[in-house]
Amino acid sequence: MPNRHFTSDNVAPAAAAILAAVHAANEGYAASYGADPWSARLQAIASEVFERPVEVFPVATGTAANALALSQLAPPYGAIYCHETAHVATDECGAPEMFCAGAKLIGLPSPDGKIDLRRLRSEIALADDMGVHHVKPAAVSLTQATEWGTVYRPDEIAAIAAFAHAHGLGVHMDGARFANAVAHLGCSPAEVTWRAGVDVLSLGATKNGALCAEAVVFFDATQASEFARRRKRAGHLWSKMRFLSAQLVAYLEDDLWLANARHANAMAAALAAGLRDAPGARLLQPVEANELFVALPEATVARLERDGFLFYRWPYRELDDAVAIRLVTSYATLAEDVEAFTAALRAGGGGAR
What we know:
Layout: H1 16-25, H2 37-50, E1 55-59, H3 62-73, E2 78-83, H4 87-90, H5 95-99, E3 104-108, H6 117-130, E4 136-143, H7 154-166, E5 170-175, H8 178-185, E6 200-204, E7 214-218, H9 227-233, H10 242-252, H11 256-276, E8 282-283, E9 291-297, H12 298-306, E10 312-313, E11 322-328, H13 335-346
Parallel strand pairs: 2-3, 2-4, 4-5, 5-6
Antiparallel strand pairs: 1-7, 6-7, 8-9, 9-11, 10-11
Helix pairs in contact: 1-10, 2-10, 8-11, 11-13
């Protein structure tokens, strides 16, 4: 039976190569707390991927990666600017604020999930005017790909980063779907991170085939000072670190991460193509990674749910008589899964709009 689960890429199984790497790392004994060969290999391969020496700190969750990275950039009285729909602001239960010991997240609106530089300028000017009465601007957090499935181009990142650095702010990138963004752009990982001005990246792997592995990547070793202690204090220094590092090595080696992302993106593009011909369907955002947001009649959404298709109804601005849903593909999504969904849509009848 075709898979009918389009709620998230988190629901996909772990990739066979990742599981094989964990199994191989389980042979025999190895030094603990990151003093193992897999962790050393991870530092080397990540430096190759990003074309410069980097400092890599594996953690088990994206929430930990984001919260710890931001705590390195923002003091307790600091402001972290992000999009109003950013995962750090809406889905992490206050973890960034807790790990920063009180820093304030300031969400900026825009229709496409990207930070509007003009709005950021306005917010920084307000903070300057308010002085000690306002939290001090400390960091900007960019989500790549965004929560609306859109992707920042290198020049967009560079413009925001240049402004941020000119005002003393660090630049963080939440890269839960970083691989999907890089695959869409067709650029090098360096072009869309440190060369564009990103200081620290939360490198996602779990959504793209890993079992449970993310990493905080610093592009300047001086900015990683004492970060190892932050990770330990947060409970993410695994004693058997080899099992996290082995996943990330397998993820980055031989471009598995990009191959997986390209497939997920291709399935999203195929799904978008099918939706364009479906009765009453309307795409709400450009499909640039592996997430789709589509407006459908309530009757169609209800019928798909009765047919066993799984997806999220998504909050969106007024849509008259339509309902917004989110569909997510993964490296494990098959062409027949996409065809099953689009066939079910077409079976409903009606006219496209």
